[in-house]
Design brief:
By secondary structure, the chain is an alpha/beta fold. The chain is built from 18 helices and 18 strands.
Length: 513
């Protein structure tokens, strides 16, 4: 432990992820005594950079890697000195000896690519209509994320009913099949519904629809941008403003219990105890239940297989497309709709899918600052792979992880004009089990559990500030502050902002300034 926590604070935040730092800044600026307790030797949770490969001067965003949902309003209010760069390529999906290229700002290359793949302009026209309608819905929802939860009826009244039905009322797979006839185009649309979410595109629970909406509402555009300096730069800025605001941050402080009463909360750990008026929990609800000695909800199960790579150069593609274009955005592997559904069915049966389904992304095509001088002057690049439909249960050990990695290499080499592995300078795998062990995320679930709709349902009548902001628990003095909050998930800071505002609005701190 780098320092001993104080015996008393207005607010104790359990867990030092990015949301904790956001909440700490808002509360400290409002004059509250805030203590952040983090069990690891550093803050940031999943939003960190690390020199992953020994002897190789590259600091990779080890767990999370792109920024979409963080509102510009929050960045401005906190005074974060961040540079988030756009990418010219939105996605590239190899298909046989060709592929589908989608530019971030549509140009002739996108039109020509759709035409070559499908034989007409019909799919591009359908693509434009669908995403224009989704953008309108996303714009409506995005404006509410830093406010108390809106009512579903208000949002529905402001939205086009066709896209509302497609995204909110019915399984997304039905809309995709109705709007698009090409299997590959269907899959490219559907992948945004499956990042970190284990479900069929036809799942009646609509968990895939909720994931899709979250992936497309960032700042009303859904654009995923590259943080210059990697995710560590994001955490570094959040830590800076939190400390400058006066928050106390204690690392190496593992919390063992949270005991709430009508008068306050006691947070205890190995060698310390802190009395507080309120506790914000940035750990998963499953973990919080254990700390409070209460029955735990069902344990989440993460669904992603992460691979971090450093290569001497990008591989040449069989299609002849420039690798600097193909890998600049999201490079899809095995993600036609039929392949995605097959992988889901196989994983549901407890088996590692026969073929890899996932996507690659190259940070260093947009930002080479994460490389040391020697690597930056070379052709070296980083690659991050995010695999779908690889739940906790099908990757139980190192041998299974190695099999999954071999599948990724095989899937990639189907589209390459040369072998891939001779280009690899460094590689590491991150299964859900490894993420659980490293970060304390139960089941390795990156959202701490299934995402929820970012609004109040028809019959919901919030009776507290915590409920209005979507951060309530069963105890009025313990609030959610991380990905398990109503509008948690992703590196956004939204849950931290909303938890802080619920504390201030609810008058939960006895001392006023």
């Amino acid at each position: 432990m780098t320092q001993t926590p104080p015996a008393r604070a207005d607010v104790v935040i359990v867990g030092g992820g990015h949301n904790a730092l956001v909440a700490a800044t808002y509360l400290a600026r409002a004059g509250r005594d805030v203590v952040v307790l983090e069990r690891l030797p550093h803050v940031g949770g999943a939003a960190i950079s690390a020199q992953t490969f020994e002897g190789l001067d590259a600091r990779l965003s080890r767990y999370s890697y792109l920024v979409s949902l963080m509102p510009q309003q929050l960045i401005d209010e906190l005074g974060l000195r961040l540079e988030l760069r756009s990418r010219d390529t939105a996605s590239y999906t190899p298909y046989g000896d060709s592929g589908l290229l989608v530019e971030t700002t549509e140009g002739p290359a996108t039109r020509d690519s759709f035409r070559a793949l499908t034989g007409s302009d019909d799919h591009l026209d359908a693509w434009r209509r669908f995403y224009a309608e989704v953008a309108d819905l996303a714009g409506v929802v995005a404006t509410t994320l830093l406010e108390p939860l809106p009512h579903i009826g208000n949002l529905r009244d402001l939205s086009d009913m066709a896209v509302w039905t497609d995204v909110v009322d019915e399984p997304l797979g039905a809309a995709i099949e109705r709007r698009f006839s090409h299997d590959l185009v269907r899959g490219v649309v559907g992948t945004d519904a499956l990042i970190g979410t284990f479900a069929s595109l036809h799942d009646p629970s609509l968990v895939q629809n909720r994931c899709f909406l979250y992936h497309l509402i960032g700042n009303g555009t859904g654009e995923w941008r590259v943080p210059v300096g990697g995710m560590g730069a994001v955490t570094g800025e959040l830590e800076r403003v939190a400390r400058e605001a006066g928050a106390t941050i204690v690392t190496g402080a593992s919390v063992t219990s949270v005991t709430a009463s009508d008068d306050g909360v006691v947070v205890a750990g190995d060698g310390f105890s802190v009395d507080a008026d309120v506790v914000l929990s940035c750990v998963a609800p499953y973990v919080l239940a254990g700390l409070m000695g209460r029955p735990a909800p069902p344990k989440p199960s993460g669904s992603q297989f992460k691979v971090n790579l450093l290569v001497s150069r990008l591989p040449r593609l069989r299609s002849g497309v420039d690798p600097a274009i193909a890998f600049a955005g999201t490079f899809h592997l095995g993600e036609s709709m039929s392949e995605l559904e097959t992988a889901w069915r196989q994983a549901s049966d407890g088996e590692l899918p026969d073929r890899a389904a996932g996507e690659l992304y190259c940070h260093t095509l947009t930002d080479r600052s994460i490389l040391g001088p020697e690597l930056a002057a070379s052709d070296a690049q980083t690659l991050t792979y995010f695999g779908l439909h690889t739940p906790y249960e099908v990757l139980p050990d190192a041998a299974a992880a190695e099999r999954a990695y071999r599948q990724v290499v095989d899937a990639l080499e189907e589209h390459l004009a040369e072998p891939f592995e001779p280009l690899v300078l460094g590689v590491e795998h991150k299964t859900p089990a490894q993420i659980e062990a490293a970060l304390g995320m139960p089941g390795g679930h990156i959202f701490h559990g299934d995402l929820q709709w970012p609004w109040l349902e028809e019959d919901e009548r919030p009776r507290s500030a915590a409920a209005r902001w979507g951060v309530e628990t069963s105890d009025p003095r313990v609030l959610l502050c991380g990905s398990g909050a109503r509008r948690g998930g992703a590196v956004s800071g939204i849950a931290g902002h909303n938890a802080a505002h619920a504390v201030l609005e609810g008058g939960l701190v006895s001392r006023t300034t």
